[in-house]
Design brief:
heterodimer, A: 336 residues, alpha/beta, Rossmann fold, 2 domains, eight-stranded mixed beta sheet, 13 helices, 12 strands, B: 314 residues, mainly alpha, MetI-like fold, 14 helices
């Protein structure tokens, strides 16, 4: 299959086998990441964004816990059709991943160097010595001071920001084409968050590495992403390039998310807008539009029939809403 | 690290001291006059008085303890009335069979428990898990002596692969040593491994949910590398605790197994001493066993530090 996209997810479904039966945490997600592109996935906790990310590397336990359907093409190869052994050759090599909490993501009993070199040595023919030199180079690349010393230290001796840099160094070990960053800054201080995001953006520019960024923070999306997909209850409800999403949101959920961002020049007397209600549980999803129960514009059709993800507006957005045209006009009138 | 070791060593002093007091008071906890009990009904008064003098029973209590602990610190645990030799010599002679049995049994236990517990945790509900459940139920409910009698019947009496009982020291050749040691070690090893395997499984399950296991998977490591290098190593601390504890118990003497297989170890020696009310031996041995326990615990504490840099680098 010839394709310009590095990663192309088509109609991905990820099912979990629970006591309440089979539930789909990811339900028909289609998404593409081009070479050198940073794509964001945003949504509330439990919307399926992390499961989507983990499904790409097939990190969920397929023996007892989860199953996948759909297609995940990476450089034209469907990852869902690979054997476990072939999949191992992709993980950490072509596609790497970093996680939310760098402390629990690093093995407390092994030195930083050991954790970097084991990735290198499991994919490349490096001598021990060369791999350690490479580990020092990678630590320097991620901006860790005194990497020759740090490489012999353990995770508990580093600060949170340093640990996430180490995770990034591990992820970069085999020069992957795609980095999946699953809420990489959520567990960090605000000042450190910015540093880590800058680092990821810099590595994207300098190494040409594509990034799939999972986050609940639209501020982060605005800063570094090129394109963005908004997820709700296991589905993508809107996708657009970043500028368009912020200028002309098509889906009421996106509008709600944008309104809930606090800004410095807002009227402090008014309470911050929130999207009322909760994400529905996976085993009792609404029949129609999944956002309908929380949506201020929902009507009978919304509750009965699920809308498809379709092109909306003039700027190439796609949204899953019956009312987006009417809404965007109303919105425009409201602003005028 | 040095401070960690020193702190651990220092913490042992009061433990040993309190143990020594309890051990010393054993004589007074057992009813009857020790000298009279030891000499039996037919003894005349002057012989009893002579033995009382010899045992130091006529001194005030505090002085008796002072003499005893003073000598014990120098390695002199008194003389055995029945064995006609110093207690420390007797312990030394009986230590080798017990220690080799303990090491061998522990080796077998770990050899069974680790792979079984690991596989059961990794593949929950699978064959290994079901085997573990049945095996540990069997190991916990069937007493060691029954198991050993069964092994003797099958492997020694019927199949004649191993001798029925006895002991050959290691310096007389490894072959005969192993031949005598195998059945008793296997009986103890199986019972011990059933508990250890459960701990291995529980501890592994806990670590399997940790974030770094997902990281290891996302790095493209082999399953065995993930399981043994990342998960098992992190699961090791509770396992070490259980293994250390059961090893201490074994050195204290697997009296029943030693009796069945007629192994001249500490357990057998202690049972005989109790039967004969050989007070010096009982006191000396209990103190020795207490020290062994404490030493094993210290060794386990030090192993924690070897495994976990967070303890080592405090």
């Amino acid at each position: 299959m010839a394709s310009e996209n590095l990663l192309e997810i088509k109609a991905l479904q990820t099912h979990f086998h629970t006591e309440a039966g089979k539930v789909s945490a990811v339900d028909g997600v289609s998404l593409a990441v081009g070479a050198g592109e940073i794509v964001g996935i945003v949504g509330e906790s439990g919307c399926g964004k992390s499961v989507t990310a983990q499904s790409i590397l097939r990190l969920l336990d397929e023996k007892s816990q989860a199953s996948y359907s759909g297609e995940i093409h990476f450089e034209g190869v469907d990852l869902l059709k690979l054997s476990q052994r072939q999949m191992r050759g992709v993980r950490g090599n072509d596609i790497s991943m970093i996680f939310q909490d760098p402390l629990s993501s690093l093995n407390p009993l092994l030195t930083i160097g050991e954790q970097i070199t084991e990735t290198i040595r499991s994919h490349r023919k490096f001598s021990r010595k060369n791999a350690w030199q490479e580990a020092v180079r990678l630590l320097r690349l991620t901006g860790i001071p005194a990497p020759e010393r740090r490489v012999h230290e353990y995770p508990h001796q580093l600060s949170g920001g340093m640990r996430q840099r180490v995770m990034i160094a591990i992820a970069l070990a085999c020069e992957p084409k795609l980095l999946i960053a699953d809420e990489p800054t959520t567990a960090l201080d605000v000042t450190i968050q910015a540093q880590i995001m800058d680092l990821i953006a810099k590595l994207n520019r300098e190494l040409g590495m594509s990034v799939l960024l999972i986050t609940h923070d639209l501020g982060v999306v605005a800063e570094v992403c090129h394109r963005v997909a908004v997820m709700y209850a296991g589905q993508i409800v809107e996708t657009a390039d970043v500028a368009t999403l912020f200028r002309e949101p098509q889906h009421p959920y996106t509008v709600g998310l944008l309104q809930s961002i606090p800004s410095l020049d807002r009227d402090r007397a008014k309470p911050l807008q929130a999207v009322e209600g909760f994400v529905p549980a996976l085993h009792q999803l609404p029949k129609g539009c999944r956002f309908a129960p929380r949506c201020p514009h929902a009507d009978a059709r919304c509750h009965a029939v699920m809308p498809l993800l379709e092109a909306k507006g003039s700027l190439g957005s796609q949204a899953r809403c019956w009312h987006s045209e009417a809404l965007s006009q109303k919105e425009a009138v409201g602003h005028a | 690290m040095v401070i960690y070791i020193l702190r651990r060593l220092l913490a042992l002093v009061p433990v040993v001291l309190i143990m020594s007091i309890v051990v010393f008071l054993i004589i007074y906890l057992i009813p009857g006059d020790p000298a009279r009990v030891m000499l039996g009904d037919g003894a005349d008064e002057s012989t009893i008085q002579e033995l009382r003098q010899q045992m130091g029973l006529n001194y005030p209590l505090l002085e008796q303890y002072g003499r005893w602990i003073g000598n014990a610190v120098q390695g002199d645990l008194g003389r055995s009335f029945f064995l006609q030799q110093p207690v420390s010599t007797a312990i030394r002679e009986h230590l080798a069979p017990t220690l080799s049995l303990a090491l061998f049994a522990q080796f077998i236990a770990v050899l069974i428990a680790i792979p079984l517990g690991v596989r059961a945790a990794v593949n929950r509900g699978g064959l290994a898990d079901k085997t573990l459940n049945a095996y540990s139920l069997l190991g916990i409910s069937v007493p060691g002596f029954l198991l050993s009698l069964f092994f003797v019947l099958v492997f020694a009496v019927r199949l004649k692969w191993f001798p029925v009982s006895g002991f050959a020291p290691l310096h007389e050749g490894i072959g005969s040593f192993l031949k005598f040691m195998f059945l008793p070690a296997l009986s103890i090893g199986i019972v011990m491994s059933s508990l250890t395997a459960r701990i291995v499984k529980a501890s592994m399950l806990e670590v399997l949910h940790e974030g770094f296991v997902k990281t290891a998977l996302s790095k493209g490591l082999r399953q065995n590398t993930i399981i043994y290098k990342h998960v098992l190593r992190n699961a090791l601390i509770p396992i070490l605790t259980v293994v250390g504890g059961s090893f201490g118990t074994l050195v204290a003497g697997a009296a029943v197994i030693e009796t069945i297989f007629n192994i001249p170890g500490l357990g057998q020696m202690l049972v005989h001493a109790v039967e004969r009310r050989d007070y010096a031996v009982i006191q000396g041995m209990v103190l020795f066993i207490a020290i062994v326990y404490v030493a094993v615990n210290l060794a386990v504490d030090l192993l924690y530090a070897v495994v976990d840099p967070r303890i080592r680098l405090q």
